[in-house]
Amino acid sequence: MSPAFGKCYDPTGTTWGVPTYPWRLAPDGLATRRQLRARGLRPGGQPIAAQVMRRSRRRKPGALVAYLYRLDLAKDVRPMSPAMWRAHDAMMRARRTCPQCSTDAGYCIPTSLGVCVTCAYPEEQRAA
């Protein structure tokens, strides 16, 4: 058994507090939030059942962790109501509207610019 595998394999949960498995070696019946969402499910308030862990050379602590939830306790995703859709549309419209020229840019305005590309670089737009 490799040292990295040994640090990540703790099915009883004595070291990390929850059962821990190496990346891609979790038992069946457990899924991450993204995997649940792909199946049209959500955790639904259940506690974390386990975690998967792998080494990371980029992070200081040296490990990436993903929490796992039980599939049998997961609930269906709540459908969006018409009011929620209206709020979502208004939010996206606000992200697309340039505060300087008040036009819909057709894309989300970059926060680094704060305005649409046409207003941020007017001299380049005239040259083109």
SSE blueprint:
Blueprint: H1 3-8, E1 20-22, E2 30-31, H2 33-38, E3 41-42, E4 50-55, E5 63-70, E6 75-76, H3 82-96, H4 117-120, H5 122-127
Parallel strand pairs: 1-4
Antiparallel strand pairs: 2-5, 3-6, 4-5
Characterization of this structure:
The chain is an alpha+beta fold. Helix content is 29%, strand content 18%. The chain contains five helices and six strands, in the order H-E-E-H-E-E-E-E-H-H-H. The chain has helices at residues 3-8, 33-38, 82-96, 117-120, 122-127, and strands at residues 20-22, 30-31, 41-42, 50-55, 63-70, 75-76. The strands form two sheets. Strands 1-4-5-2 form a four-stranded mixed sheet. Strands 3-6 form a two-stranded antiparallel sheet. A hairpin with a 7-residue loop joins strand 4 (50-55) and strand 5. The model has no long low-confidence stretch (mean pLDDT 89).
Keywords:
18% strand; 4-stranded mixed β-sheet; 5 helices; two-stranded antiparallel ribbon; alpha+beta
Strand count, sense and barrel status of the largest sheet are: 4 strands, mixed
- CA-based gyration radius: 23 Å
Between the first and last Cα atoms, what is the distance in angstroms? 61 Å
The order of strands across the largest sheet is 1-4-5-2
* Total count of helical runs of at least 4 residues: 5
Query: Total number of β-strand segments?
Result: 6
Low-confidence stretches: none
Oligomer: single chain
Level of helix content? 25-40%
Strand content: 15-25%
Shape: elongated
Average pLDDT, rounded to a whole number, is 89
The H-and-E topology, N to C, reads as HEEHEEEEHHH
